[in-house]
Design brief:
Distance between the termini: 35 Å
Oligomer: single chain
Structural class: alpha+beta
Strand order of the largest sheet: 1-2-4-3-5
Number of strands: 9
Radius of gyration: 21 Å
Strand content: 15-25%
Shape: elongated
CATH topology of the largest domain: Muramoyl-pentapeptide Carboxypeptidase, domain 2
CATH architecture of the largest domain: 2-Layer Sandwich
């Protein structure tokens, strides 16, 4: 595979995972309500924070900095690697700003119009408000000065190290009357280009979106139960698969609507996620085999509904690819088989979920 073809696959996977994250949040808003969506987002961001924050500080070379500065630089650099539009401003060793500027990554396009402010606040409670706890610094807190979901031109705030320990309810404070200093790109930190060559940057872009799917799926199972969490995830997957099929197919150069073309696209997306996959013919059917599942690597044992939820993406995509083709799961890695196996065949009946 050429470098261009590999990059196209990574970008397609990033698109799907990005859309799935946003879609899962909005599916929860519309089907379970704002409070349930905020609860899910809080858990997702706290889970990811506990897994990624300290290793991320090490990876980005920020552990020597004052805590307020290290935190703001971490959010600037890690989000920038994921394709997020973000700004950073140093004010002092105990105060540094981070600003997530529209277009907001997590609520892409018109999705911002349906994103409740409670969900945005839950992100901050889940991650930003816990940085001081994780660092063992009870004086460190985050002050939010703007929220895009409140029709302000950014999600903005600053890390502040105070001269006293903070109570739990003081770790996140809202101060909408404050306004941050302007961003100067020339003064902003940057990753070491020698340590982050082009291929690593492209994979980091893919991994950023994949990590959110790896986190939100187990969190949904834990908070709503496998039946309800799996249902929300599968509905999301089918909608995203249908909505994004044409974009992904175009990115991968898929121009025909045959079972072979879809099988090839599914295998290529599996490889772009970092998995081994192959395609073969079996009579009138196409078989796709995927022997690993990097998307959920490190997430621990999961109920079958986690796979069913993500598999909804492929079900939805096939419904648009050719609504008279059917996708059947005939082997499951999560149930002890040596891999996932899908059979794609023509049924003559239109898709009916």
């Amino acid at each position: 595979m050429t470098d261009e073809a590999a990059a196209a696959g990574w970008e397609a996977v990033a698109d799907l995972c990005h859309a799935y994250l946003t879609g899962f949040i909005l599916t929860t808003v519309t089907r379970r309500g704002e409070a349930a969506a905020a609860d899910l987002v809080f858990g997702t961001f706290r889970r990811q924070h506990l897994e990624k924050f300290l290793p991320g500080l090490e990876k980005l070379g920020l552990t020597h900095l004052p805590h307020a500065v290290a935190c703001a630089q971490y959010h600037y650099l890690s989000n920038q690697l994921g394709g997020v539009k973000v700004e950073y401003v140093y004010e002092s060793d105990d105060k540094a700003w981070v600003r997530y500027v529209p277009p907001r990554w997590i609520f892409e396009g018109t999705a911002i119009c349906a994103a409740p402010s409670a969900v945005s606040r839950a992100m901050l409670r889940g991650w930003h408000a816990h940085n001081g706890v994780t660092l063992g610094n009870p004086r460190l807190g985050f002050v939010c000065t703007k929220q895009t979901t409140d029709v302000q031109p950014a999600l903005e705030g600053y890390y502040r190290e105070y001269d006293r320990d903070l109570a739990p309810d003081e770790r996140l404070r809202f101060a909408p009357g404050e306004d941050g200093p302007d961003f100067d790109p020339a003064a902003a930190p940057a990753v070491d280009q020698a340590a982050w060559p082009a291929d690593r940057l492209k994979k980091a872009y893919r991994n950023y979106a994949m990590e959110y799917v790896r986190t939100i799926l187990p969190e949904a199972m834990a908070r709503f139960g496998p039946a309800d969490g799996g249902h929300l995830g599968r509905v999301t997957g089918r909608l995203i698969g249908m909505q994004y099929h044409d974009r992904v197919a175009a990115r991968l150069g898929v121009t025909t609507r045959s079972a072979e073309a879809f099988g090839g696209m599914l295998a290529r997306l599996a490889r772009a996620q970092g998995d081994d996959a192959e395609v073969e013919r079996d009579g009138d059917a196409v078989i796709v085999t995927q022997r690993t599942w990097r998307l959920m690597r490190g997430a621990g044992p999961q109920p079958p509904e986690v796979f069913d939820a993500w598999n909804g993406v492929w079900e939805g995509a096939l419904a648009v690819h050719d609504r008279r083709l059917r996708l059947e799961v005939i082997a499951r890695l999560d149930l002890g088989d040596p891999g996932w196996r899908w059979r794609i065949r023509r049924t003559g009946r239109a898709t009916a979920f």
